[in-house]
Amino acid sequence: MAEPLLATRRGDSSSAGHDADPAKTVVTTPGEPITTTASFMRGHGTFVEDETVVSAVAGVVERINKLITVKALKARYSGEIGDVVVGRITEVAQKRWKVDVNSRQDAVLMLSAINLPGGIQRRKSESDELRMRTFFTEGDLVVAEIQSHYSDGAIALHTRSLKYGKLRNGTLVKIPPALVQRSRSHFHALPCGVDVILGVNGYIWVSKHVDMETIEANPEEIYSSKNDRISPDERQMIARVANCIVALTRHFVHIHETSILYAYEASLQHPIKDLVTSDISSDIALEVRDKLQV
């Protein structure tokens, strides 16, 4: 698993010199020196010039042990087995759904790779195929896990768990996939009463909190398309967390549970609608960076 790198401001001369520490660099530009330390190995998105590891693309520096790589900010999501992704159903086909997961081509969710209402475990029949649009239909948002890759590079998904499935009661935030940090869990219940699902593909779902016990008690509702009642206070909390994520993204800060919590705390003194303005978002991002570096 990639070790997170601490954030610094773009253009900060202390992080752009030939003696820059790769553990303190996040966003680089093509040709920017990353490190001169001989113990590091260069990976994708880098090259060596005069014994210096240099960035070949504009992107985020990541370090896995002694391997230095740069993930391009504008690159399409490629997908790794086990990744949690958020996607949108684009087509209902024969025994499968096609899902937009911000990749080069739509992912595939097979009818055999989902849970039936009520948690029934059995072979899918022709009657299930006729009812496919009662499970997922075009435009539905889903959270799933990457199961495998097809020979043509397409991604195969599955939702064989109650924590996966149709998404409701929230809003979608799209960010560059390179800014989402992989972790043990991508499902987070924030203290403010908001749930956040960090899709590794750059699609983030922010919604009102729902207890897993409630889902287990009503498994037939996992395919419901009707939102629950959301109070005005819950709507404000959802909007504040979503705008905090947008503010961090604009200043190239890694998105994970801790950075979102720090941004939320820093945002409480500002109106929700002002969080995405350039001055306030910059102040929030700088405060989050300072706390992450402590």
Automatic annotation (TrEMBL):
GO term, biological process aspect, one: nuclear mRNA surveillance
Main location per the UniProt record: nucleus
Highest taxon of source: Eukaryota
Keywords in alphabetical order: Exosome, Nucleus, RNA-binding, rRNA processing
Chain intervals for the UniProt region annotation (Disordered): 1-25
GO molecular function: RNA binding
Domain spans labelled S1 motif: 80-160
Subcellular location: Nucleus
Gene3D superfamilies: 2.40.50.100, Nucleic acid-binding proteins
Keyword rRNA processing: yes
PANTHER family per record: EXOSOME COMPLEX COMPONENT RRP4 (PTHR21321:SF4), PNAS-3 RELATED (PTHR21321)
Name this protein carries in UniProt: Exosome complex component rrp4
